[in-house]
Amino acid sequence: QVQLVESGGGLVQAGGSLRLSCVASGLTFSTYRMAWFRQAPGKEREFVAGHMYSGGSAYYENSMKGRLSMSGDNAKNTVHLQIDSLKPEDTAVYYCAAGRGFGIWTLDRVDYWGKGTLVTVSS
Fold first, then answer.
1. What distance in Å separates the CA atoms of residue 89 and residue 45, rounded to the nearest whole number?
2. Any residues with CB less than 8 A from the CB of 1 and at least 6 apart, and which?
3. Alpha-carbon distance 73 to 75, whole Å?
4. Segment 54-64, tens digit of pLDDT
5. Cβ-count burial 101-110 (b if 16+ within 10 Å, e if not)
6. Which terminus of the chain has a lower count of CB atoms within 10 Å, N or C?
7. Are 120 and 10 in contact (CB under 8 A)?
8. In this structure, are residues 93 and 41 in contact, taking their beta carbons and an 8 Å threshold?
9. pLDDT tens digits along 11-52
10. What is the rounded CA–CA span in Å between residue 45 and residue 38?
11. Taking a C-beta distance cutoff of 8 angstroms, is the pair 54, 31 a contact?
12. What are phi and psi of 98, to 5 degrees?
């Protein structure tokens, strides 16, 4: 019923940029907060960016600060993640997530996951 669909991934060269998108359906968009996680091969899924609360400001993973920007389009139930200055170590599947609550994001606070979009950064 609830569906999160990511798009925008692909193959880019180091230093390039991507804008990922997540379209949510089947949920009341305004009552959920959104986030992005990523998972690289052989590594644990980790937080990348997310809202502090529904409709609130975003915060970002410390090591990626300055390269990330979340934005949204409420009319389209869509959130975006702009990633600049991509590095090979950014290569991962990026997942859109929706949840409730406030404050920091942890895996246990995610109610719904998208299937992910693959970002591959070549050196």
1. 14
2. 26
3. 5
4. 888 999 999 99
5. eeeebeeebb
6. N
7. yes
8. no
9. 999 999 999 999 999 998 888 999 999 999 999 999 999 999
10. 6
11. yes
12. -130, 140
